[in-house]
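Backbone-to-sequence.
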C-alpha cells in the first residue's frame, strides 16, 4: 500500500472504493464500476478526488519573469484569473513534467504539477529561482483538490451552495476565481482532464471532507438514470482523458519523448518565438529550438481497433512487415464502444499507416487489426 493518503481516504473507504498506487499515493481507482463512472461524466457529472496533484506557489516581484525562465511559455503574459498549460524541461530539452499555471494575483502564481513529479518540479523551481526575487513554496501537503466534471458540473456546484455562483458560472475555460462552495473557501478553476466542461476546486485539507460530503449529498439528490451524478475513480479519469486525446506523463510525455514527438511542437515553437521577441531566456532554449526546427523521428497518432480485441500500452505497432512504434496508451472506449489507443510511430512510416498498412501486436505477438484515426477520439457537443 502506498505511504501517502489524501484527506479524503477515509471517505473513499466508506464508499467501498478499490485503491491503487498512483504517483506514490493510495488513490481510489473505482467505487463500483469503471464504465458507469465514465458514463456519469459524459452524461451527467463525476466527482473526483485529485488531491495527489501537486501545488506550488510562486510569489514575489519577479514571479512572472522567473516563470518565463523556468517553464516553456510566456507565463508573465497570463492575465490575473487565467491559467496556461505548459511544460518544464531540463537543459537538454527533455520534458520533466507538463503542468498548469494559474495567475492568482499580479505577483502570485499557482503551479500544478503531476503527482509523481511534484518533488522534481519543486526541486527544479527552487534551484532555478536563484537570482530572482521570488519565493517558491510547496503547498501540496496542505492542499486538497476535488474535481466536478461533466455537462451537469455547474448544476452540481450551484446546488451545493456556490457563492458567488454568477462569477463561477461565467468563468471562461482555463480561468479561476475565489468562491465558497458548501461554506468552504475554494479556488474554483474551469479546467479538467476529461474532455468535458467542469471545475477543479482547490481547498485546505481540513475543509476537504466537508466539501466532498456536501458534493456527494448533492449527487444523491440530482442523479438520474439518464444523467447520473456520482463519485468517480482514476480508472474512469484515464479512459476519459484518452478519449479526449490528452497526454499522460509517463505515457505520451517523458524524458525519452521530445515535445515535438508528443505533439507539443507548436506550443514550444510559439513559446520560443514570443520569448525571443521579449528578449527572455528559458531553460533548455537551445535544445528546444533544435527540436522544433527539425522533423521529429516519431509522431503520436491515434489508432482504433477494427474488432473488439483491446489495445494496451506497450503493444508494438507494425507496418511494412516491421516494428515501427509502440502503443503509449490504450483502452476500450466506453463512449465509442471500440478499442482506442495513442501510439508513437516512426514518422517515415506515416504514409503506409495512413494507407491502412498497420497492425498492433500484443505481448504474445498476436496481431490486432487497427486503423489510424484522428484525435481526439471524442469531442463534447
Amino acid at each position: 500500500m502506498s505511504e501517502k493518503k489524501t484527506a479524503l481516504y477515509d471517505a473513499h473507504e466508506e464508499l467501498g472504493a478499490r485503491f491503487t498506487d498512483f504517483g506514490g499515493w493510495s488513490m481510489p481507482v473505482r467505487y463500483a464500476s469503471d464504465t458507469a463512472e465514465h458514463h456519469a461524466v459524459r452524461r451527467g457529472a463525476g466527482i473526483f478526488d485529485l488531491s495527489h496533484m501537486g501545488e506550488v506557489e510562486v510569489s514575489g516581484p519577479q514571479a512572472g519573469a522567473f516563470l518565463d525562465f523556468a517553464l516553456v511559455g510566456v507565463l508573465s503574459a497570463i492575465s490575473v484569473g487565467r491559467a496556461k498549460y505548459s511544460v518544464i524541461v531540463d537543459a537538454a530539452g527533455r520534458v520533466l513534467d507538463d503542468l498548469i499555471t494559474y495567475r492568482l494575483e499580479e505577483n502570485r502564481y499557482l503551479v500544478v504539477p503531476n503527482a509523481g513529479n511534484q518533488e522534481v518540479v519543486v526541486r527544479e523551481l527552487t534551484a532555478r529561482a536563484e537570482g530572482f526575487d521570488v519565493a517558491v513554496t510547496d503547498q501540496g501537503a496542505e492542499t486538497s483538490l476535488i474535481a466536478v466534471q461533466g455537462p451537469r458540473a455547474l448544476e452540481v456546484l450551484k446546488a451545493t451552495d456556490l457563492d458567488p455562483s454568477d462569477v463561477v458560472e461565467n468563468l471562461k475555460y482555463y480561468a479561476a476565481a475565489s468562491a465558497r462552495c458548501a461554506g468552504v473557501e475554494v479556488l474554483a478553476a474551469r479546467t479538467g482532464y476529461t474532455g468535458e466542461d467542469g471545475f477543479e476546486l482547490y481547498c485546505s485539507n481540513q475543509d476537504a471532507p466537508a466539501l466532498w460530503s456536501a458534493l456527494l449529498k448533492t449527487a444523491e439528490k440530482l442523479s438520474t438514470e439518464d444523467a447520473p451524478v456520482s463519485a468517480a475513480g482514476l480508472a474512469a479519469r484515464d479512459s476519459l482523458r484518452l478519449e479526449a486525446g490528452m497526454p499522460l506523463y509517463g505515457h505520451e510525455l517523458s524524458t525519452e519523448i521530445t515535445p515535438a514527438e508528443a505533439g507539443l511542437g507548436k506550443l514550444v515553437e510559439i513559446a520560443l518565438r514570443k520569448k525571443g521577441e521579449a528578449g527572455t531566456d528559458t531553460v533548455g532554449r537551445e535544445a528546444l529550438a533544435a527540436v522544433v526546427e527539425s522533423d521529429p523521428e516519431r509522431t503520436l497518432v491515434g489508432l482504433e481497433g477494427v474488432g473488439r480485441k483491446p489495445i494496451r500500452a506497450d503493444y508494438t505497432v507494425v507496418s511494412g512487415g516491421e516494428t515501427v512504434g509502440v502503443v503509449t496508451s490504450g483502452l476500450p472506449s466506453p463512449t465509442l464502444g471500440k478499442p482506442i489507443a495513442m501510439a508513437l510511430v516512426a514518422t517515415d512510416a506515416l504514409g503506409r499507416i495512413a494507407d491502412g498498412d498497420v497492425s498492433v501486436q500484443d505481448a504474445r505477438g498476436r496481431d490486432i487489426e487497427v486503423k489510424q484515426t484522428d484525435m481526439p477520439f471524442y469531442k463534447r457537443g
